[in-house]
Amino acid sequence: MTPTQAILSLVLATMVFSVALDLRVEDFRGVARAPRAVVAGLIPQFLLLPLATWAATLVLDLPPNIEAAMILVAACPGGALSNVVTHLGHGNTALSVSISAVASVIALVLTPLNFTWMVSTNPATAGWLRQLSIDASDIWVSLVALLAVPMILGMLFAHRFPRATARIRKPLARASVGALLLFIAAGLIRDRHLLTAALLPQLGLVVAQNGLGLALGWLGASAFGVGIRDRRAITIEGGMQNSGLALGIIAVQFGADLGMVIIASLWGIWHIVSGLTLAAIWRRQDARALARS
To answer: How far is it, in rounded angstroms, from Cα 117 to Cα 127?
Structure first.
């Protein structure tokens, strides 16, 4: 793990810990009693977005490596950051965590399966077909180190030390979000020489694909008739893919192809921007509704 990855992992783990301070075991029991919402969250990730991306690559005349990268990102599950963004947007955090956990496990099978059939059935990308093998350790590190451990520690801390929790909850949440924003800003400054007008077409593709994922998440949740907090969680899960996993696959199995790396890297930045923006909009809506009441 590089120093940059270690810092990002620490920031994400801290954010998950701060989110867990507001969770209770009963929140997860409610999700277990109504697993339909979990299914509703998995369908956009592993069916709707991959199908829509595959159809788009058939219509668009793009370089094969760009189309392959779009397909790969669409085939990846969500990441731990989606739980934090869901919490910030007043969504059902327990549902988001449950979806992320299930998605991380089934991604070991469905991510290679989705990628293989999408790439092989697209004439432009058929030559890019690889026997995609997902390193289970990549999934388990994300699931255990970045999600399960800080989540459990946060819930235990809140249970054992309620007074301390009340004091640190808001400051810790703000500090961890601020650290994430500083991390992104530092990365943009470090790589500013790469941020040229030539990247605008790729950024446009990423913005469109991410927007499609968010929209499909919302529509899928609405079709299942779940409540507003569940819809928010499912929307975020549908639009925040694990671009870090995609970058790891590209580095190992595609020789760090530059075009693919650019798409996955832009995804890693943009889905945070779109997710936090959506969370801010939802919080504002809630504040207005509370003021009216």
So the answer is: 13
Distance CA 78, CA 243 (A): 8
Q: Which of 272, 262, 271, 264 is nearest to 246 (CA)?
A: 264
Other C-beta atoms closer than 10 Å to the C-beta of 99 total: 30
Q: Provide the residue type at 147 as one letter.
A: L
Describe the crossing of helices 162-190 and 258-292 by its angle, rounded to 10 degrees. Answer: 140
Under 8 Å between Cβ of 41 and 240: no
Quick one: pLDDT at residue 225? 92
Q: Where do the domains of the chain lie? A: 3-183+197-292
- Tell me the C-alpha distance between 147 and 18, whole Å: 12
Which CATH entry fits the domain spanning 3-183+197-292: 3.90.960.10, 1.20.120.80, 2.40.37.10, 1.20.1530.20? Answer: 1.20.1530.20
Burial of 40: CB neighbours in 10 Å, binned 0-12, 13-18, 19+: buried
Strand ranges for 34-77 from DSSP E: none
Q: Which residues contact 258 (CB under 8 A, 6 or more apart)?
A: none
pLDDT tens readout for residues 1-42: 567 667 777 877 888 888 888 888 888 887 888 789 999 999
Environment class of 292 (CB within 10 Å of its CB; exposed 0-12, middle 13-18, buried 19+): exposed
Measured from the Cβ of residue 280, the count of other Cβ atoms closer than 10 Å reads: 12
218-258 pLDDT, tens digit per residue, is 999 999 999 999 999 999 999 998 887 888 788 777 777 88
